[in-house]
Amino acid sequence: MLNFNSPIKEEKKYNDLNIIEVEPIIKINLRSNKREFSTKIGKILSILPPNEANTSSGNEKFNLLWLSSDEWLIYSNDKEMSLDDQTNLEDKLFNEISKLNQGAVTNVSDHWVMINLNGNKVYDLLSKSCPYNFNDFKNKKGSVAQTIVNRIDVILHHKEDDNLNLFVRRSFSEDLWLWINDSARFI
Prior knowledge:
Elements: E1 11-14, E2 17-21, E3 27-31, H1 36-45, E4 56-58, E5 62-68, E6 71-76, H2 83-98, E7 104-107, E8 112-118, H3 122-127, E9 144-149, E10 152-160, E11 163-169, H4 170-184
Antiparallel strand pairs: 1-2, 2-8, 3-6, 3-7, 4-5, 5-6, 8-11, 9-10, 10-11
Helix pairs in contact: 1-2
């Protein structure tokens, strides 16, 4: 059984910066280097996996993040997606991809905590403890970056201007949440 319990229980608002954990939603890791894989994903999700490094594709229901040349992360935009719908999606992906040896499908919903950072000070905050250069990232909607914030591995997805989702491993989420809130007070 998936563990959706999170140590983060609050939303924080600072001057020009809002920080909130996004309620647990489905997150699925996909791996494949087969040619038919993209077609199958396109039919199931109605979006094709991005093939350009550090990009994403999406529609109203899902986002698909490029993590490497043979790895992607799907996450839902629907915060109200029922557990049955989540299970059906995972089963459909598993049956069409893993069972047919087209790739690997792994539910990582309980592995990643997603934090939404929104406001004019997002990049000021991240730059305090992140070596990544955000100049190109913040100008390209849909950009994806895997980097380190306060010595913790994260995945960043640029949704819209000054609005991004940060994925952090559950075991490090409370530590990162505390650092974000401490640092946000001083920007």
